[in-house]
UniProtKB/TrEMBL annotation:
Region (Interaction with RNA): 153-158
Single Gene Ontology MF annotation: tRNA (guanine(46)-N7)-methyltransferase activity
Family label: Belongs to the class I-like SAM-binding methyltransferase superfamily. TrmB family.
Phylogenetic lineage: Bacteria, Pseudomonadati, Pseudomonadota, Betaproteobacteria, Burkholderiales
Superkingdom of source: Bacteria
Residue sites binding substrate per the record: 151, 183, 221-224
Name of the protein: tRNA (guanine-N(7)-)-methyltransferase
Length: 256
């Protein structure tokens, strides 16, 4: 998730009438779109893309039913998202992505597979979670292969940070799960440390190991399959919200 121009950090010595925007974990870049993606955007957006609004989303009205809801953050080109939604028709999925080519690609898959249990919000996930997702409403959250921001000076841009995880916990139902995956070991280690330190979460696997076997519902991507053939590692982390967890409200749209 990526911008042509990175935001400039504010000078903390200068007074401002408005709090500074939080550091973004993505940069927007232009991407090429095929004719199929363009057509899907034109034809299917009115039904399957939910406009961002700073107000709680009525999920039951959006899907026309009551069902467990899972949010995926940063679905890329949407292949795994569509496959999971197709395999789990009794649940509803909301994919959050900022990049238009990815939105078009997933809409194309929705049309080809006839998926009715999948919607898209094209906006910053931090603001979507803050304003559109009701606390305690989600059965699960997927964060698969977020940008690892390899350079040490950019590590602060990584999505999985303590404040963001606290917000995710507040949006999960008691017993709801958070599933993260990465193919970058230093990020996997950071994820494990951050998730383990969150008091509202409990690891679903042996704490001595920390990382979980890949759940059957997460399909292998072509990129991942190639990496495995080359001996590259992939780390899955699956945590659940404690039944008695009480998370403090955290406004992630502003810095302190």
């Amino acid at each position: 998730m990526n911008t042509d121009q990175e935001p400039t950090a504010p000078d903390p010595t200068e007074a401002s009438p408005h709090p500074a925007r939080a550091i973004r974990s993505f940069v927007l870049r232009a991407g090429r779109m095929g004719t199929g993606q363009q057509k899907a955007l034109a034809d299917l957006s009115p039904r399957f893309v939910v406009p961002y609004r700073p107000e709680s989303l009525d999920v039951a009205q959006t899907f026309g039913r009551q069902a467990d809801t899972i949010v995926e953050i940063g679905f890329g080109m949407g292949g795994a998202t569509a496959e999971i939604a197709a395999a789990r028709p009794g649940e509803d999925f909301i994919g959050i992505e900022v990049h238009t080519p990815g939105v078009g690609a997933l809409l194309k898959l929705i049309g080809e597979r006839g998926l009715s249990n999948l919607r898209i919000v094209q906006h910053d996930a931090v603001e979507v979670l803050e304003h559109m997702v009701t606390p305690g409403s989600l059965a699960g959250v997927h964060v698969f292969f977020p940008d690892p921001w390899h350079k040490k000076k950019h590590n602060k841009r990584r999505l999985i940070q303590s404040g963001f995880v606290a917000k995710l916990v507040s949006r999960l139902k008691p017993g709801g799960y958070l599933h993260c995956a990465t193919d970058w070991q230093p990020y996997a280690e950071q994820m494990l440390a951050v998730l383990s330190a969150e008091p509202g979460l409990v690891n679903t696997t042996d704490e001595a190991v920390g990382y979980a076997p890949r759940p059957d519902y997460r399909p292998l991507t072509k990129f991942e399959q190639r990496g495995i053939r080359l001996g590259h590692g992939v780390w899955d982390l699956v945590f659940r919200r404690r039944e008695d967890a009480v998370s403090a409200a955290v406004d992630l749209t502003r810095t302190s």
